[in-house]
Amino acid sequence: MGVLNRRKNKKFDYTPRYFDDKGEGNPFQIEHKFDKFRKTVGENTSLKGKFINVWDDIQDKSNRNSNRIILLIVTLFIFIFLFIIDFDLSIFSLK
Questions:
Q1: 8 A C-beta contact, residue 28 and residue 9
Q2: Where do the domains of the chain lie?
Q3: Which residue in 9, 41, 15 sits closest to 28, CA to CA?
Q4: 31-74 pLDDT, tens per residue?
Q5: Does the pLDDT of residue 84 top 80, yes or no?
Q6: How far apart, in whole angstroms, are the C-alpha atoms of residue 20 and residue 42?
Q7: Whole-angstrom Cα distance, residue 49 to residue 40?
């Protein structure tokens, strides 16, 4: 019977036909799209080191302009939403 002796899975030794193993690495290796641009991915550092890396990523100058544009768009959408639902927008103006 098959109760005590389990059947082993078959193993296949597949090597792609045109794969050059002297190149950049395994083409079948799955990695995230932005791993090479992040400082937080990679070696396992302490918790403090991870927070320092994240803080450096946040303070990056190139992201600051895009963050301002996103913030502007979000506030614009909020004001449009408030205008559509007939919210009293006069509380935002100076008297």
A1: no
A2: 45-92
A3: 15
A4: 777 766 666 666 667 888 878 877 877 777 666 777 788 889 99
A5: yes
A6: 25
A7: 9
DSSP 1-70: --SSSPPPPP------TT--TTSSS-TT----TTGGG-SSSSS---HHHHHHHHHHHHT-HHHHHHHHHH
Q: How far apart are CA 53 and CA 39, in angstroms?
A: 6
pLDDT tens-digit readout, 19-39: 666 666 666 667 777 766 666
pLDDT at residue 68, rounded to an integer: 84
Q: How far is CA 74 from each of CA 63, 69, 78, 89, rounded to the nearest angstrom?
A: 16, 9, 6, 17
